[in-house]
Amino acid sequence: xxxxxxxxxxxxxxxxxxxxxxxxxxxxxxxxxxxxxxxxxxxxxxxxxxxxxxxxxxxxxxxxxxxxxxxxxxxxxxxxxxxxxxxxxxxxxxxxxxxxxxxxxxxxxxxxxxxxxxxxxxxxxxxxxxxxxxxxxxxxxxxxxxxxxxxxxxxxxxxxxxxxxxxxxxxxxxxxxxxxxxxxxxxxxxxxxxxxxxxxxxxxxxxxxxxxxxxxxxxxxxxxxxxxxxxxx
Length: 233
Fold this sequence. Notes:
By secondary structure, the protein is α+β, with helices and mostly antiparallel strands. The protein has one domain (2-229). It is built from seven helices and six strands; from the N terminus they run H-H-H-E-E-H-E-E-E-E-H-H-H.
């Protein structure tokens, strides 16, 4: 029984990570996939920023070191669950305050515990510390064991004190018992970086740190994030 349960968890991890790629692969053309991801990320981000329940994120974004936007995130399961989605991460230059072009990532994993049903959510993870931002330069990392995370405060109050490296927010219309990104694996999607920037083997570091690639298509998303980060200044 234990072995079969472990096997199920392993399978769910694989399926969740595959689901992360599937969301970005809705269209067949290589060049269309990342463009759609960026456009959907902008829509999701602006929706979060207009939500009265996201006051903390709206207020604290001006201090953020980066923001990971996942426009479609699938969660499903009963006792054993799986989840996955793809998104884009924008980093903030510590000296100039300028936001980077988007780098592409997938996020997924399996969970054990009370949960029921399935839904599609949209999520935003704010990197509020340098360590949180540094994680996105790795080949992959696990939320929780590698970097601290907490669910962001939701509601009218924006006064909550947060000490975690990453703060996660999610919204969904589906039925699901509980929400946590703890234990999820986040890793770059070099193939989408390459397709979007028209250059072979574009790493996350080239996009976020070296800033050696550009795509004007991302201007609207970058402007939306920059505007939101300056809203209370």
